Structure formats: structure tokens, C-alpha cells
Amino acid sequence: MTQIDHRFPCDTCGSDLRFDPGTHQLVCDHCGNTEQIEGGGAPRLQELDLKAALNNQLADEEIEVTRVTTCPNCSASFEFDANIHAAECPFCATPVVADTGTHRHIKPRGVLPFALDESTARAELINWLGSLWFAPSGLTDYARKGRAMNGVYVPYWTFDAETKSRYTGARGTHYYETRTVRRNGKTERIRVQKTRWRNVQGRVARFFDDILVLASRSLPKKYTDGLEPWDLSYLEPYKPEYLAGFRAEGYQIELDDGFDEARAYMDRMIARDVKRDIGGDDQRINNVQTNFSDMTFKHVLLPVWLAAYKYRGRTFRFVVNGRTGRVQGERPYSAWKIAFAVILGLILALIAGYVIAISQENGGVISFDPVLR
């Protein structure tokens, strides 16, 4: 069990180096010196045994302790640089004071490095806000001129499992019967769909690879889900160098809870496989018994640029995928823009009504008498 300090002094001037998005190197903003991160582009990451972790039997080298601060507003837990004592929460812009708390957790196995720098992420956010017609123009200007966005590595779990399922159910085949009915005093013959059921049983198998589960409660799940897909094939073995200059959030959803969510997803996929295997026009599933084997997991960190802006008494939060630039967030609305749209709609409706009335008075023909001057 180790405590990690994500600070890397420059060999030339002693200033702190930071990870340069889109590269595999650290850069010094003070003197321009760069240092290469060794081991970039490594092969597929090694998974960890899920049962051993759930039974608290992981090796000590898989556990680390980091210094964290918890936001009193949104409860986000994130790492603080040792020389910073007060700042704002990157998730909700609430002022926080660094404490001396520590977080003992499973060490990240992989990290997906930032590919977009802050200026590129900000440009994506501004373009997104600009595409929202009802968004306040002032908020877009505020985002353009406001403080820098925060780069945060957000925690996720990934799960793998080999599954073999046995099921019982029924296959439904549609057929039709003709019936005579009376409607509005008339006799009619209609076709009625019926289903003939036959009991079936069988087996299905599926390997689940890298089921991704968010391990944070700091942001609405609909935002983080909207950032997908993530290019997990570019995951790098975890190195603190990739975190230099960024913050890393500690996971709030424990491994067992994360697996429960992954298991629910697996069950839905298995049920879909069973229905496909049953076939027919309709299916019933009576029972499914699944055997899980080769269950593995890993803790990974994915890159997100965050912006939390306080505008006219409200806090607006936005997230940008640090790899693709995909944006999600609260959709702000301008009251005057909505009012203008409503008034414009009423004017257009009145004009359309006037034109229709004139057309009807002239037998469906609209004519305009020229005015000679």
C-alpha cells in the first residue's frame, strides 16, 4: 500500500511538469523542457481477479493511498496538489478548502490519456452552446472569456466474464382465426391474431468484454453516458505521469456495487440472446440459470474536461470528452429568446390565418391589385 504524489519536477528549472495532451510526454510551462513518458502504446492491460477483490484478497501492490478533498456540496472526492490549500470544486464550482484526508483504494490499472487540450475543449463547448438557440448569449460569452476548464480523470470499472446460460421458456407462433362481428348494424368478418405456445429449453453463451461502469456520483449519469463511446483500445498502463497537471477523482461506487450494475447489464443481454435463440413470433422466458467464470475487472481513469459556471445565480455544469470533444451538460434557456419565439409564432399564425381568410373570400384565389403611381 503506497501513497502517491503526482508531482514531477523539471530537470532543467525545478518547476512542476505537466502531461501534454495528445502526446506521451511531460512539458514544463516555465522553461519549455519536455520529458518522454516511457512505455507508451503498451499491449492490452492485465485484468484482476474479481472474486479475490470482492473477498479483500488483492495483493498490497494493487492498493494505494492518495490525499483527497471532499466537496461539501456535491460530495465529489478528488486529489489536491500538495501546495494548494483552497480552490473550487471542479464539478460544481463550490469553494473548498484542502484537508488532510486520505483515500485507500484499488490502484488504477489503466488510464486513457487526454488527447484534447483545454483550448480545444473550450472551443467544443462554445460551439455546442452556440448551437442551442434558446441558450442565453451571455452564458456563451461567459464561457468564452471565463476561467479555464478543469481536466479531471473520472473513475470507472470495467468487467469481463465468460457466461453459459441454460433456460426454459416457450416459443409463440402466430395464427389467425376468422370471426363474424356486427358493427354499426352491419355484419363483418374479421381476422383475429392468436398465438400457439410450445415449451422449449436450450443454452446460450456469451463472453462479456470491458463492460464499462461509472464509479462516480459527482456528475449526473446521463451526462457521462452521453460522452460515450470511449476508445478503450487506447488505454495505457497506469502511470502517475499521465495525471501530472490534472486532478483525479477517487471512486465513490465500490467494486461490489459496480459489479451489480454490470451484472444487470449482462442479464439484459443474456435475456436478449435467449429470446433470439427461442425464435418464433413471440417468446416467453420462464427461467434462466447462468454460470459465470473467468470474472475479471480493472479500475481505469477516463479524461473529462469540466466547466462549472455560475451565471445569474445559477450553476451550469458541462463535460467534454477529453478524447473526442463530445459535449454534454445542462441546457440553459433564455427567457427573452423563448418569449420572442412565442411572439414570432403568434405573428406568423395571425398572418397565416389572415391569408386563409382572404383566400376563402375570393373562392380560393388570392389576388393583389397593383397600385399605379
Describe the secondary-structure layout.
Blueprint: E1 2-3, E2 17-19, E3 25-28, E4 34-36, E5 48-49, H1 50-54, E6 63-70, E7 77-79, E8 86-88, E9 95-97, E10 102-106, E11 110-111, H2 118-130, H3 137-145, E12 150-183, E13 186-214, H4 221-226, E14 236-237, E15 247-248, H5 255-278, E16 282-311, E17 314-321, E18 327-329, H6 335-361
Parallel strand pairs: 1-6, 11-16, 12-15
Antiparallel strand pairs: 2-3, 3-4, 5-16, 6-7, 6-10, 8-9, 11-14, 12-13, 12-16, 16-17, 17-18
Helix pairs in contact: 2-3
Terminal-residue CA separation: 94 Å
Query: Which descriptor suits the 3D outline?
Result: flat
Question: What does the largest sheet look like?
Answer: 9 strands, mixed
**Tally of structural domains:** 2
> Beta-sheet strand percentage?
35-45%
Q: What Rg, in angstroms, do the CA atoms define?
A: 30 Å
Q: Segments where pLDDT lies below 50 for 5+ residues?
A: 1-5, 82-86, 333-341
Q: Please work out how many helical segments DSSP would assign.
A: 6
The strand count comes to 18
The SSE order reads: EEEEEHEEEEEEHHEEHEEHEEEH
- Kindly state the mean pLDDT as a whole number? 81
Structural class: alpha+beta
Helical content (DSSP H or I, runs of 4+): 10-25%
What would your notes on this structure say?
The model is unreliable at 1-5, 82-86 and 333-341 (pLDDT under 50). By secondary structure, this protein is of the alpha+beta class. It is flat and about 95 Å long. The chain is 23% helix and 39% strand. The chain folds into 2 domains: 2-165 and 200-333, no CATH class; 173-199, no CATH class. It is built from 6 helices and 18 strands. The chain has helices at residues 50-54, 118-130, 137-145, 221-226, 255-278, 335-361; strands at 2-3, 17-19, 25-28, 34-36, 48-49, 63-70, 77-79, 86-88, 95-97, 102-106, 110-111, 150-183, 186-214, 236-237, 247-248, 282-311, 314-321, 327-329.
